Structures are given as structure tokens and as C-alpha cells.
Amino acid sequence: MSLIDVDHLSVSYGATRVLRDVSLHVAPGEIVTIVGPNGSGKTTLLRAIVGAVAPTSGRITRAPGLVIGYLPQRLHVDPTLPITVERFLRLPRGASRAEIAAALARSGVSHLSGRQMSELSGGQLQRVLLARALVAKPDLLLLDEPTAGLDQPGSAAFYELIDAVRRETGCAVLMISHELHVVMAASDRVVCLNGHVCCQGTPEAVSSAPEYRALFGTGTHGALALYRHEHDHSHDHAQDEALETTEAAE
């Protein structure tokens, strides 16, 4: 059974139709990535899935009792607001100190619990936002361009972290990404969106599809060096090194 089934979904803002007849599903434990040009409706699709946007037509079916963790593309923190990371993670539902500690540890930022939110670097903030999404022990993680603004080592480390979280918790991941070379290595399935679903399937099938190449060309085909979706000791070692390198840079 799927965690999420999106069936012929259309969304309009006034007279402007943003999504048309979009269908996709996410199965337990898999990583599905949405790619598409700016203005293609990617963020609107995630917002519809979490219930922040009402469909014009079609439907979204969620598995009974489904818990969703959402990591937005951006979060502005008022620099004058005195709030620590731990207190931020306690909002809005009052997570326990143990739950917060576990989520921060899983995100690799236990040492930031007492830090002011306004003092965090871009990479640190993304990991704290991931920790917040993990506090609820989600069945499905929704990530809206989680590495926007990070440099290449930071992006690589974050994607490694997402895969580690998926393997440790068993949660599924539905994410938006603009880093095509990463997507093609990190995903179980890829959905190419441009107001409608242009094509979807395995990374190999999508990367060779005419619709995908019409949007993105062939420059990223086979360029999978940044991240390897493998489950072995070398993968774990590479993850540790990437996280350590990024922490040192921050």
C-alpha cells in the first residue's frame, strides 16, 4: 500500500493553473525526487500534499495514521528573537527533551541544542530543520530543495544524511531537488514536473526520456560522482567523512 497517492491532481491560483492532472505515489521506504524548471509547480505539489493548498480537482489519499515531516525550502529567523535550537524544536507540540535529543543526534547536530537559532550557519539550520521534522517520527519526509544555498560539500553531506535517516528509520522521502546529478544517483524514482508530469520512473528511464532531455539537456546524464546510493561500508565511511568535512567548514 502506498503512503501517498496523488490522483489526477490540479491546482489553480485564481485564473492561473499551476498543476494539471498530476498523478504519483510514494511507497514505504523509498526515495522519490521531483525535478522541474522554476515555476513548474513543485512546491505547490508538496504544499497540496501537506494540506496547505486546496486542490482544484483530483484527490490525495494518505495511508491511515500517516505521519508527515516537512522541511521547507526556506525559514526566516528574526535575528532579534531569542530562541535556542532546543526551544525551537519544542514548538509547536511540546516534544520531550529525549525526543529532541534523539532527533538532533540523528541529524548530526547534538552540539547545537543550546545555540541561538539566529547564530546558525546555512548548513546547521538545514540540519536543525531536519531534526524538527524527525521529532514526530514521520513515516514520510517531505523536503523542498533542502540544500538550496549550500555549497557542494554541504549538499553532498546533507543528501548522505537523508539516506542514512531513511535507512535507520525506514521512512520514505519525497523531495524536490535542482541538483540533477545528485537526484539521478540518490533516488529510487524520479518525477519530472512542468505543470504536469512529463515523465516518471527509475532515474535511468527518466534521464533518457525525450521529455526530460527537452527540459534539461544531456549534460548531467551519467554524472553520478557526487553521491552514490549504495548500502555498504564504503558508503557509511564516505558519509562520515562528508559530515565531518562540512562541520569543519561551518
In short:
With 250 residues, the chain is of the alpha/beta class. It has helices spanning 42-50, 85-90, 97-106, 122-135, 152-169, 180-186, 203-207, 210-216, 233-249; strands at 4-13, 16-26, 31-35, 57-62, 68-71, 140-144, 172-176, 189-193, 197-201.
- The termini sit apart by 41 Å
CATH class: Alpha Beta
Number of self-contained structural domains: 1
Major sheet characteristics: 6 strands, mixed
Average pLDDT confidence is 84
Rg, nearest Å? 18 Å
Give, in order, the helices and strands: EEEHEEHHHEHEHEEHHH
Low-confidence stretches: 220-250
Protein topology:
Blueprint: E1 4-13, E2 16-26, E3 31-35, H1 42-50, E4 57-62, E5 68-71, H2 85-90, H3 97-106, H4 122-135, E6 140-144, H5 152-169, E7 172-176, H6 180-186, E8 189-193, E9 197-201, H7 203-207, H8 210-216, H9 233-249
Parallel strand pairs: 3-7, 3-8, 5-6, 6-7
Antiparallel strand pairs: 1-2, 1-4, 8-9
Features:
250 residues; alpha/beta; Rossmann fold; 6-stranded mixed β-sheet; 3-stranded antiparallel β-sheet; 9 helices; 37% helix; 22% strand; globular
